[in-house]
Amino acid sequence: MSNVTLKWLGGAGFIIEKGGLCIGIDLYLSNACMNEDGAFKRLMPPPVLPGDLDMDYLIASHEHGDHLDPGSICDLISKDTKTRLICPTVTKRDAMSFGVDSDRIILLNRGETLDFDGFSIRAVPSDHGDASPDAIGVFINIGGKTIYFMGDTCFRTDFMEYIGWKEDIDVLLVAINGKFGNPDSRDAAHFMQMLKPKLTIPCHFWLFAEHGGNPGDFIEYSESIAPGLASMLLCIGEKIEL
User: CB under 8 Å, gap of 24 or more: what pairs does 210-215 form?
Assistant: First the structure.
């Protein structure tokens, strides 16, 4: 048993735990993205509050508000927490503008690997276009498991060459919302077919009405084009052992 657990917090947000180690990814725990017209209102309350979390590290794949949450980042990384932010350059700039101390930020850009006590993380390109030119996906190796969080990236047929793919994947975390440059459910199924992970978990859908996404279509289509590969839908707040 790996004793590695994965918990979905909605949107693109996940918590990974192993023993006493806790790593967050792209957490959105506020309603900061909602504009004056009510667009991008979150459709359900967050399953946890910032004060409920005791993270060692928080990974932000890029600077957009539903991945680097301006409404909660200074509660997650404050004088009262031990959490450090891991992110690419533009995200660091924005985090500092929100009030995060630069000493609490660890830079991780495309092609770089960081080794920590208990896990390692390798950043690969995430093709989010001009919307976020230094966005990253991350390979996290923890407890003998390899988790690939793709981040916000478009579908492309040369994707394995684009990211420099070179390792087996235990868990693939892939967006399916099909808007704002992200894969839709069928693109995500093709990623699954390409990368052949042991388990695929779709994410980044139904956080806002504007997000879209069809998890049922993902399951049905992935079963047709990638038979024998496992996928799983998580409910918000659900935790599984890997």
Answer: 210/39, 210/40, 210/179, 211/11, 211/177, 211/179, 212/177, 212/178, 212/179, 212/184, 213/176, 213/177, 213/178, 213/184, 213/185, 214/176, 214/178, 214/184, 214/185, 215/176, 215/185
